[in-house]
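During the second half of the funding period, the structural biology subgroup turned its attention to how the target accommodates small molecules. The most pressing case was nicotinamide-adenine-dinucleotide, which had performed well in the primary screen but for which no bound structure existed. We therefore specified the complex as follows and requested a full 3D prediction, including the ligand pose.
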Amino acid sequence: MGYSECTGRIGGLPRRVGAAIMHGLATPPSPQKAVKMLEITVIPVEGYQRVCRGIDPESGLHAIIAVHNTVLGPALGGMRMWPYASEEEALTDVKRLSRGMTYKASCAGLNLGGGKSVIIGDPKNKSKEMFEAMGMFVESFQGSYITAEDVNTKVEDMAIVNTVTEYVVGLAGKSDNPSPKTAWGCYLGLKAAAEEKFGSPDLKGLTVALEGAGSVGRVYADLIAKEGGKIIAADIKEKAANRVAESTGGSVVSPDEIRSIDCDVYAPCALGGSVNDETIANLKARVICGAANNQLLRPEHGEKLRERGVLYAPDYVVNAGGLINVYHELVPGGYKEEAAMAQMDKIRQNLLQIFQLAREEGICTAVAADRFGEARVLTAMEQAKA
Ligand SMILES: NC(=O)c1ccc[n+]([C@@H]2O[C@H](COP(=O)([O-])OP(=O)(O)OC[C@H]3O[C@@H](n4cnc5c(N)ncnc54)[C@H](O)[C@@H]3O)[C@@H](O)[C@H]2O)c1
């Protein structure tokens, strides 16, 4: 998929963001707090709309912002802080993540593009000055990139970013913690997967192996259990797994056992890459549906799952609940929880369409999801050209 620099409107929202989308939604920036020494250089990357390096020697900021595509709307994606071993490693990650956001937003039917930012460094070295510099960096994209919290950044960090730029969402007092919404989306996704694989959306009697009993996993587990599903939980933090077992009436196994346990559904809610050669060889589950990003270690694992008769509910379709929720901060009139929740059913509907596409075309669901997401972007790009 290529990119285009967008200046018009599509689907009711400005593609190159502008004041309208943010109107009245964010605290006005305080320009006096702007960091003066920020050096911004463009990193040319084919297929990406704009990738830049931002360096602020004063605060020690070394960051990259990647905007993959804004044809459907401004690129929204979190700000991650990670001790990458090199800038190259950070660039690879931010490219992969921002591209993923394009597909996630497109599949969810949102008027948003794909973008992401990464700060290279140990989260222990966070500072107010660093997030102010980061705010300047975000601001330099003039609204074509909107940021939010992500791995190792918090709502409080975003509040500092917001003193410099209005292009930040997920602030306290607005759409709030996305995890319960992500969990709700996973639950709806699982109902779609159950309908496809087991012939009914009813989760009663299904055994779900939950890997990762964190913010999303524990809420997801509760929702499944409430409908009569049985939970087997695993977490590297034993306490977290025990807590889920207690609240759901389920059981606990070790993280080493969870991927090969006897169950109907494997729900990866910890880290990416858990669906790999070894997992696929030992998996008893017939459905994979969880919140973790980048569940397939390599793209060919999608096809391997299909060959083994395992239905994979593509991660970025299933875990879009948080994005749908935060998107509602940007719509005219501001965030309304009911409106955000109403849009979540899109996850279920989209999955059913993706499963059908995969069935009809004889392709794996991961490829079907990419095609599904790409179709909307390509149509918008054609319209933009016309
Ligand atoms: N929070 C959201 O709204 C959201 C949205 C989209 C995607 N996701 C993705 O969903 C996943 C879970 O997110 P979260 O917010 O619940 O994170 P979290 O950090 O709250 O929970 C993750 C849990 O997984 C556990 N864990 C880590 N490695 C493990 C392993 N090898 N085996 C078993 N457990 C392990 C951790 O101890 C932790 O309890 C992440 O991959 C995240 O990127 C989250």
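Two results from this model are relevant to the next phase. DSSP finds 14 helices and 15 strands in the chain. The chain has two domains: 9-161, 179-329+338-370.
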